[in-house]
Amino acid sequence: MPYRAPVDEYAFLLRHIVDFDRVAALPAFAEATPDMVGAMLAEVGRICEEVLAPLNRQGDLHPARLENGVVRTSPGYAAGYRAMADAGMTAMTADPAYGGLGLPQTVATCVNDMAGAACLALELNPLMTQGQIEALEHHASDTIKALYLPKLISGDWCGTMNLTEPQAGSDVGALATKAVPNGDGTYAVTGQKIYISWGDTDFAENVVHLVLARLPDAPGGSRGISLFLVPKFIPDDAGAPGVANRLKVVSLEHKLGLHGSPTCVMQYDGATGWLIGDENRGLAAMFTMMNNARLGVALHGVSIAEAATQAATAYAAGRKQGQSPLVDGTGMIVDHADVRRMLFEMKADTFAARALAFDLAVAIDLGRSGDATAAARAAVLTPIAKAFGTEMGIKIANIGIQVHGGMGFIEETGVAQFARDVRVAAIYEGTNGIQAMDLVGRKMADGGAAIRAVIAQISAAAGADALGAAVAGAAGELAEATDAMLAMEQNDRFGGAMPYLMGFARVLGAHYHLRAARAGDATRMALARFYIQRLLPEARAHFAQAAQGAEGLYDLPAQDLCA
Predict the structure, then answer these.
(1) What is the CATH number of the domain that holds 143?
(2) Among 126, 201, 281, 350, who pairs with 305 as Cys (CB 3.0-4.6 Å)?
(3) What is the pLDDT of residue 321?
């Protein structure tokens, strides 16, 4: 079925669920009026439906390939990318002084969500560039900004980030790439990086890499990492792509999904680079880009959940199989109770994950305006949104296959692609386990104050009706689980981190659904009732598991567990 951009859903969320009016009221976003935002989302939605969505299957069937050292992208991707860039996808939140639109992160979140649902493999490209733009705005010199930002913002040049090495995955501090001063303000960067999304393309004038590397005599571990800008082509005096830099794509990874997105092994052989930020502070600078990407990856789960749900509901409404249990039913499989259960779950969890991501985007916008409370909220919500959003994307894609029955296992329907494409989202930009450890580690370093503020908001909004009482009760259980976590030693926290995060997310989802039910129609009420009565009880089981900490996880010696 054709993809439909859920623009009306965005309008409802912004107006009734995540308090976007607080962002729109900020002087920095005075031009982001409801009419302007609505018009932009409608136009981007049209591009997603008419231009990007038809490319999704093309990228899966005709993957990016490496020919004589040149990356060849999937059919139609060049035109699709240009349509995204012309619509402002790379310019959304960028500084107007360099050609950006200066819009709130929340608006960019809507755009990235629908673009990812239309063609996730291609949406990854501008997402990487968006993150690089933000990193350069915060950490680059004025000279670098003046040269690179206009080209990246216009979409003429693309951006990447290079962290991972064969021996240094999540442990970035183990990286071995070196950067040696050339004596003229530049550095010679040498090393190999793997898993580089969109490490090269045949539709951009230049590809700009942000590369983590070590200076001579730098301290060991993460404290000795610096960040360098390394372009594919070194700009000439006029700022145009000049001579080729000393870097190349060694190979493309053969992947489970996202076939249209070239994931590159990059080799740097004394490539010319420029230091971004301070020496040995590269990881802090790169985290500006990574935090942006974590919201983006949370949306990857939401995007695929949306696409899978649209496909499943259309199939269920048109597939006749078995005898309908309803006298006045449609005669299609949507009449069957178990199919109804699956479709309700897909819709309810897609809403919960999207509302969480949008709530995070609003907190980011408010935090950037100087609101310390909102910044603390954003810090708490980031790992939850990334992990929950991607876990739901994986789950909902799998449910979508189940709704299709045998046809879901057949590639021609396209629904298996959703499951393959979204699976990596739980892994990249920090695995979901790392997100959970961040939540119970760094995000509890304030004694749990920021987390308790989130819980207090949920409790205050719950109310005394039946659904509200259930949400209030779950918020109380979350508070108890938080106290239990705070009382644990670190490894016990880590042992229960993932179930704690998932329980936290379930409670947040119930909060959003309750708000929707009170602001919406009978459909919103039905979804809220389903979520609170059938899915929210999972939180209690998650918290029970979290309370076990690391107990029992080391009962078997490693050699027996791995035998």
Answers:
(1) 1.10.540.10
(2) 350
(3) 87
- Which is nearest to 244 in space by CA: 206, 194, 202? 206
Domain that holds residue 100: 7-150
In this prediction, residue 1 carries a pLDDT of: 67
| Residues contacting residue 141 through CB under 8 Å, at least 6 positions apart | none
CA distance to 207, 321, 412, 455, 466, per residue, from 334 (Å): 48, 10, 22, 37, 28
| Pairing, β 187-197 against β 247-252 | unpaired
Q: What is the pTM of this model?
A: 0.96
Cβ-Cβ contacts under 8 Å for 396 (sequence gap 6 or more): 304, 305, 308, 309, 345, 346, 349, 350
Q: What share of the chain is helix, strand, coil (3-state, %, to 5)?
A: 60, 15, 25
Alpha carbon separation from 45 to 114, 158, 233, 497, 501 (Å, rounded): 7, 22, 34, 37, 32
At residue 291, the pLDDT reads 73
**What total of structural domains would you count in the chain?**
3
Quick one: what percent of the chain has pLDDT higher than 70?
Answer: 99
**DSSP bridge partners of 344:** none
- Displacement of CA 64 from its chain's centroid (Å): 22
- Is a pLDDT exceeding 90 seen at residue 138? yes
**C-alpha to C-alpha distance for 399 and 409, rounded to whole angstroms:** 12
| Model confidence at 79: pLDDT above 70 | yes
Which of 45, 50, 55, 59 is closest to 87 using CA atoms? 45
Asked if residue 230 and residue 141 are part of one domain, the reply reads no
Q: For residue 384, is it left (φ>0), alpha (ψ between -120 and 50) or beta?
A: alpha
Enumerate the active-site residues: 429
Write down the H helix ranges in 104-157: 105-139, 142-154
Same domain, 169 and 95: no
DSSP letter for each residue of 385-444: HHHHHHHHHHHHHHHHHHHHGGGGGSGGGSHHHHHHHHGGGGTSSS-HHHHHHHHHTGGG
Does residue 323 belong to any structural domain of this protein? no
